[in-house]
Amino acid sequence: MKYATSPTPSSSSFNYPRSTSPLPAPANYQPTTASAAVKRYKYLRRLFQFNQMDFEFAAWQMVYLFVSPQKVFRNFNYRNHTRSQFARDDPAFLVLLSIWLFLSSVCFALGMGLGWGQLVLFIIFVVFVDFIGAGLLVSTIFWYLSNRYLRRDASSPDVEWGYAFDVHINAFFPPLSLLHCLQIVLFNSLLSQPGILSCFVSNTFWLASIIYYLYITFLGYSNYGKLVGNDLPMLTNARAFLLPLPALTLAYIASLLMGFNLSHMLKDFYLYRVL
Asked: Which of 89, 100, 157, 101 is nearest to 131 (CA)?
């Protein structure tokens, strides 16, 4: 039985039938010994070759990060059979995410009543600090921790840094959509107002966003190297990424009891940057 939940991807993505044994390599499969630097160069070079990007498949991944993120990470393992790498070799997802981030930031800035000069400064901070800078830092930390503490044994392959970055941007997309898009619809009419209802709705948005991020990160590392069938993943104890959930729930309850509105905090933080 073939999975019928995604559009037909380009040659960089394949759907395979379910099996109880490792997948056979395609007839045209050639193992690659390319270094991380070579893979990174090819990836960055494709950022300027839009005609070679599979935007349809990247859009499918964005949808399924909300409805069934497990299927997105299953494709990463299929890619390893055809490309000998788990990380994306097609920057289409990153391009779409960047466009989505830009548009949502513009809407958020206009919702806060920023002028045009402040809007430009706001977008620079969001894109280059919150997204690129924080993304590189978080990806590097998780990459180091997973290789240092989560590998099943010393002979297991290292986690690719590119894969760690892919996990981060996958996990970043749902919180971005919740906090920069859905939240902005209610921002001026409800979330920026005082009162317990505003605090409850605002902080619930934040709780859902952080849970989404932690859960998708957990899926990414728990499925790393896991082939179709009963093979074990290359990493173990990936549940460590879910350990903050109890503390997160307690912090959520405490914020409601104290009337601490996280949307007000976010707005004050953004305004402090640009004013």
From this structure: 101
